[in-house]
Design a protein that fits this description.
seven-stranded mixed beta sheet, alpha/beta, 13 helices, globular
Length: 403
């Protein structure tokens, strides 16, 4: 008997759960797009986007998803034939590098596998070997959504500086912004990209690029940018339509204005980071307990290298896919598929899943998802050690006690 009736829970790493307040803010007629309220909202949103990135830098807003933000960052920074160093720790770092190569950038990849972060020592070595400073930028994914590894952005910046190299540091924060701690200015990031549908709790459709004065100066020498992707008019508009390269994404802006108020004025970034850390620890505790029997394991062994927004895990013998199907069909919970962990179409591809705990998520949502997972493992007779929910509850209790 299916128990999936009622409100479903989408526990995938984007689109994340959207607050009712955000959805309600979007549920209104379109405004005058030429003047008045839209000008005030656009200016306020741009200012608050700088605050959520902890940056005094410039920001450009695009009607696009994260892939569009990637392309905007590449188009503004590079000329065809320029060289980039890409630090690949999973599928999404690899795609950003691939897209840059497709656009005409010569990309050198440093591969760190699917279970570990980028090694700053290897980055410093690679940059020291670039005697002529041909590498224009280093591409780094803060959190790779596929592997759930978190990279140490400040350590990579220190490696660049230790090598005495002038390369820009470009960071993908699509899966980490307003989830994991991120400090653009303090960590010396020159270009950062993100999107609306994860920690910012707004439907997919907006991509963002933040850039420093150093990156702005570099962009003036680049030859790849086209009118739509040009960040100059978006970051320094003379008229409101220039923020968006044309007609404003009005209803996304209404939603984003509300979500940024919730993030910055009500909960605060420090509390948001702590909340995500606690919810992540609950997920890890459950998996670590379940994995004491059977073929169950977190993808990232070292807790210091795990993201706080999403957790990738393995349940062998195809049981990850079996569990995902059971949860959606019988319990109304959707987990993320495994991405880039095995060749599509192979039996091994069914061994991986991801549990998201990003954005508008609280203790009962995370504990509920974990409890239905344990129920599914019992129903499907997937070998596991019982007690995962008790361990997760203990992590929640510990985190709440520290608040």
């Amino acid at each position: 008997m299916s128990l999936a009736q009622g409100r479903p829970y989408l526990a995938i790493p984007g689109p994340s759960t959207m607050p009712d307040r955000v959805l309600a803010a979007m549920h209104r007629p379109a405004p005058n797009i030429y003047e008045g309220e839209i000008e005030e909202i656009a200016a306020r949103v741009a200012a608050n986007l700088r605050r959520v990135a902890m940056s005094s830098s410039h920001v450009a807003i695009y009607i696009a998803n994260g892939h569009g933000a990637w392309e905007a960052s590449i188009a503004n920074v590079f000329s065809r034939g320029d060289k980039a160093l890409s630090l690949v720790t999973g599928r999404f770092g690899n795609i950003w590098a691939r897209n840059a190569a497709t656009m005409g950038v010569h990309v050198e990849r440093l591969e760190f596998g699917l279970k570990a972060p980028a090694d700053p020592a290897r980055v410093e070595e690679a940059l020291r070997a670039d005697k002529d400073h041909e590498i224009k930028a280093v591409l780094l994914t803060h959190v790779d959504t596929a592997t759930s590894v978190v990279n140490d952005v400040a350590a990579i910046r220190a490696a660049i500086d230790a090598a005495g190299h002038p390369a820009l540091l470009m960071v993908d924060c699509i899966a980490s912004l307003a989830c994991d701690e991120f400090r653009m200015d303090d960590w010396g990031v020159d270009v950062m990209v993100a999107a609306s549908q994860k920690g910012l709790m707004v439907p997919p459709g907006l991509g963002f690029v933040w850039f420093s004065d150093k990156a702005l100066a570099a962009s003036r020498e680049a030859d790849m940018v086209t009118p739509y992707w040009d960040w100059q008019p978006r970051a320094f508009p003379e008229m409101v339509y220039q923020y968006f390269g044309g007609t404003a994404p009005t209803h996304h802006l209404f939603g984003l204005d509300e979500s940024l108020k919730m993030i910055l004025e009500e909960e605060g970034l420090t509390h948001i980071w702590a909340r995500h850390a606690t919810l992540a620890s609950a997920v890890w505790a459950a998996f670590e307990t379940w994995g004491q029997e059977g073929d169950i394991a977190l993808n990232i062994a070292n807790p210091a290298h795990r993201a706080h927004s999403v957790t990738a895990a393995r349940i062998g013998a195809g049981n990850a896919q079996r569990l995902r199907s059971w949860l959606e069909r019988e319990a109304g919970v959707t987990l993320g598929i495994g991405l880039g962990m095995a060749e599509p179409g192979t039996p091994e591809a069914n061994d991986f899943l991801r549990v998201a705990h990003m954005g508008h998520v609280n203790a009962h949502m995370t504990l509920g998802a974990l409890a239905t997972m344990e129920a599914g493992m019992q129903a499907l007779k997937i070998p596991h050690n019982p007690g995962g929910i008790a361990a997760a509850a203990g992590a929640i209790a510990k985190g709440a006690g520290q608040a």
